[in-house]
Design brief:
By secondary structure, the protein is an alpha/beta fold. Helix content is about 40%, strand content about 15%.
């Protein structure tokens, strides 16, 4: 076997192992299944309307994670969407329309990241765009609402 072929084999092996590691599901500590509150369906419809996308609300599996935030790959998070249709929300934010709809938009898009559009415009579903569109008072519903430090240190992933 030539050196180039061996090197290509090692590169392919590394890519396969890395790809498999990336596919492992994210499961934060302290999570528990939760039934989505009734308003989640209305929020899903609003998110479909602003994004122009459609999805299946019933395939989402919802989890509450104890506390104001939880560890996730990008740091401290208050929400996290997985491609296996699992959404994790910190218990302090399960009634936060912003956080829940942000994760719903990931579900509708089918991928992570925060492209604009649709995040920011036409769906103001980031901390900054939500505040600009609706003000801080609409962040009520989360136990940590109004704490700028908490918002600056946490991600909606």
């Amino acid at each position: 076997m030539t050196r180039d072929r061996r090197r290509m084999g090692r590169v392919a092996w590394a890519a396969l192992v890395g790809g498999l590691a990336a596919c492992s599901p994210f499961e934060p500590a302290g999570d528990a299944p939760m039934a989505p509150p009734a308003e989640y369906r209305a929020w899903f419809a609003k998110t479909e309307a602003c994004s122009g996308l459609t999805g299946d609300f019933d395939r989402i599996q919802w989890y509450s994670v104890d506390g104001d935030s939880f560890d996730c790959p990008s740091g401290k998070c208050v929400g996290r969407w997985n491609s296996d249709h699992h959404i994790y929300i910190s218990s302090a934010y399960v009634r936060s329309e912003l956080v829940v709809r942000h994760e719903m938009l990931h579900e509708l898009l089918g991928h992570p990241g925060h492209p604009d559009p649709p995040f920011v415009s036409p769906c103001p579903l980031t901390w900054e765009s939500w505040r600009a569109a609706y003000g801080d008072s609409t962040l009520a519903g989360s136990a940590a609402a109004g704490r700028l430090v908490a918002r600056a240190l946490t991600e909606i992933d």
